[in-house]
Amino acid sequence: MQLTDTLSNTRKPLLPPVGEDGVVRMYVCGITPYSEAHLGHALHAIVFDTLRRYLDWRRIPVRHIQNFTDIDDKLIERSNRLGIPMSELAEHNIQHYLAQLAALNVLPAHEYPRVTRVIPEIVRFIQGLIEKGFAYPSGGDVYYRVRAFGAERYGALARRDIDELRAGARVDPSEQKDDPLDFALWKAARPGEPSWESPWGPGRPGWHIECSAMALVTLGEQIDIHGGGMDLIFPHHTNEIAQTEAYTGKPPFARIWMHNALLQFGSEKMSKSIGNLVSIDEALQRYGADALRLFVITSHYRSPVTYSEEALEAAKAGAERLRHAATIAGGTAPAHIDHESARARFTEAMDDDLNTPRALAALFDLARDINRAAASGGDVAAAQATLRELSSVLGLTLQAPQARSLAAAPFIDLLVEIRAELRAARQWALADRIRDRLAALGIELQDSPDGTTWSER
Length: 457
Ligand code: ZN
Hints:
Blueprint: E1 2-5, E2 10-13, E3 24-28, H1 39-57, E4 62-66, H2 73-82, H3 86-103, H4 119-131, E5 135-138, E6 141-144, H5 146-149, H6 151-155, H7 162-168, E7 183-188, E8 203-205, H8 207-219, E9 223-229, H9 233-248, E10 254-260, E11 263-264, H10 268-275, H11 280-287, H12 289-297, E12 305-306, H13 309-327, H14 339-351, H15 356-375, H16 381-393, H17 401-424, H18 428-440, E13 443-448, E14 451-456
Parallel strand pairs: 3-4, 3-9, 9-10, 11-12
Antiparallel strand pairs: 1-2, 5-6, 6-7, 7-8, 13-14
Helix pairs in contact: 3-18, 4-8, 8-9, 12-13, 13-15, 13-16, 14-15, 14-16, 15-16, 17-18
This protein binds zinc ion.
């Protein structure tokens, strides 16, 4: 299998992995849980889940890490405004997001590190950079010295000239940096902000150092795939390379930098108004997980996907077409469906930089052949098994949404019962969590004086 590496701008073979254990180490930058996740976050999750599922199917061992940035300016600002602790706000949004991922049929990462749980490791990392001459304390902050890393090397991932980057760098008057390009590794505590003790006084880590530290803690000094949206190339991933390679002295930090194109909403203006309105819950309710996944993977991950109701309706119809072919009753007459060649086409496409549009074309051709054979009484069972297998590699369940919730009905009843007991015991937070997670799965609870009923949205 080959994947496009942003740093070298070439296709690179995924195998063999950098580790002697043969495990593909994959770190994907996760969300900052300051508000509810939106459709753009779903796209990102689906892209990397598709890769993860494909590696699982090919029996290529993979360790998939996705972090939560649970310290951040926006989180602090919002928690102060709402009057709830930052940790509580982050926890609430993280649980909601995890429920949404489950509803999107995204496999859980093997680990979800959080910044607040690796502060000592971050402090050690920064100390190491200072000792090696790549960082310096200044007025309670600590900054990374970009010049020490080398101008050319620093600008390589973003393919930008360092003078151009320097000219565009904004300097906050409160920051005492030697060079406008230097960036904060540690920020001195300000009033009203959560802070941790450090050799440089109380403060909190900068954003970029967090991912370097979490990747080091969970996967080691070198990894195979570092993933994220294209918007993270500069400065976030540029700074991650500078930090980690300076600290470990072992380039490359990541063998393959894999970046997905972002969800587009037409014009820039629309992106601001609609982008935040299209919630994952709402899209799941209207189209279902299979359609949302199809909407995303109909484009190659490096090509932008543009949001439109028509595109989502088309994806819904496509999901229905696959589901129909997977469940249509055939006959007993021998049918000649070359489902093994469909499997070969699928594999070849996925090996080719995760070319999901071509992989899907193989599936739709197979679905057409199944429908034709079934119509003339052919035995389609084996071909249907292949269709279901390959669909599941793409995370498609091919189940009608109703069938799933009917099977789940006794379990939903049980959760509603437990929630009633929690409410009686005034355990509001837990009770709300049950309601929110069911909502993310498309189950709406209605409370009334007579008790709680539920319905599928
Ligand atoms: Zn990151």
